[in-house]
Prior knowledge:
The complex is a heterodimer. Chain A is an alpha/beta fold. Chain A has helices spanning 5-16, 39-48, 111-122; strands spanning 20-24, 30-34, 56-64, 73-81, 86-94, 100-102, 125-127. Chain B: It is found in: Cell membrane.
Amino acid sequence: MSLTNERIQQRLTEKFGDVLTGFEEPFGLLTFTAQKDYNLKVMQFLFDDEELRFRFLTDVTAVHYPERKGEELAVVYHLHNFQDNVRMRLKVFAPVAAPQVFTATRLFESANWMERETYDFFGIDFVGHPNLKRILNVDEMEYFPMRKEFPLEDSMRIDKDDEMFGRGGNI
Amino acid sequence: MLEQKQHIKLPEGSIEKDTTTLNLGPTHPATHGVFQNILEIDGERIVSAESTVGYIHRAFEKIAERRPYYQITPLTDRLNYCSAPINNMGWHLTVEKLLGVETPKRVDYMRVIIMELARIADHLICSAVMGVDTGALTGFVYLMTYRELIYEIYEEICGSRLTTNIGRVGGFERNFTPAAFQKIERFLAEFPAVLKEFETMLTRNRIFMERTQGVGGISAERAMSYGFTGPNLRAAGVDYDVRIASPYSSYQDFDFAVPVGTTGDSYDRYLVRNAEMWESISIVRQAMEKLKGLPGDIYHADVPAYYLPDKKDVYTKMEALIYHFKIVMGESEILPGEIYNAVEGANGELGFYLISDGGRSPYRLHFRRPCFIYYQAYPELVKGAMLSDAIVCMSSLNLIAGELDA
Lengths: 171, 406
């Protein structure tokens, strides 16, 4: 009998109750949100539990939602249970003013660089990370380039002055 | 300091122990790409190592936030450029899942052919380069000819060779020509003998075995903890393959084995890759057989809102012109959603994490690049090994700088 999303949700709510919210299944993948300080506890439980066995960390990344006040940054973990072949997604929201989230490096070696990358791009401060410094960008950088306040130029923008290109037009 | 040391009288029989710091890379001829390894060596033995990456970081994830879905395909080409078609297909499969596009069977099989050929091309180079790194250039020069054949197949199908931009949302840009099928048949006829010869040359070669066995070994538990996937994880004895675990593009219709190693060292990684090439040949054969039973004129799904119409129709039919305009200007309807989709890339699980807010470009796109994730195990793999083992270990991991840095 393989593990179903309902069963995982049931086990998790039994154990953590109100800490976990927003259960949904976009495209069949169980997704939920944990309170910021509980990310490690939830992952540890998912790792240790003999029934759940989520022992492979597929991916760590973050998303920036500037319009959500007080929870602008979302850290997204993708976990995988190899035995039952089930994936799930765990989200943790942190305010951009205090982006402290516990590191998962004690649990998964693979979290090390993925968290460094997330820090590099979004500025999430992984508390307890052994070597939290930039990985893909240069050390002297003072901002976090994947945040939405640094937009790229839009190739379809409408403010282009066509007059400069011999086509009349207006600004 | 140096002078002072010469004056120190060491006790009888002792050897002065001093370690040297050696920068292997960023552009070292033996590192196959721009990554730096700072090695602390004692004589020729590696005491500790630190890897640094980011030398060719091009901010693809950021660029993707301003591009319509079609224009992201060329970005994915440049991740693992040794097997670019797999990245393309992975991206299109993700977008199709988001848009709810169903592809016909013939498209699936054509995709399988392209993906497996790309896998062969990637493994071929990796295995051959391992030979080079242990001092045997012949295999590399010999096998290059056959990678060329694969590139000719791509060229026949889409007009380009390395960064192919092959495929579209819903299928392919154009049908495979009879010449393309002939080239695939020719490859299938010629390549097995070549691969056999290559294996005869290297697999039981005494020098090769001694240089690779026991080098960079990792246990299954450590490999899992480090997030290894693909041949590197399978060499450690875990039979995890995305093609089996969560089949995409009709992989469930094919009969193939997943080769698994035991020790997880460089030699096992080489063996797993070679065995995988045989499986890929078999998959391409099966797909060619299956294609014969299907009508030959379907090469894309019937989704005018997402699939770019034929250029001829754009010039002559109003409807095609409208759809073309809408797709190119990024105005076709895309529903909000959040999706993680993975394919078995040539060196591991290549995942696409895509968040759409309904706009013309992704709100957030993240590539789960297998190289990036398992390169961090490198210091542990080479600790205590010889300096020359560090090179073999690196090439056996099949690190591709483009994928590492994205």
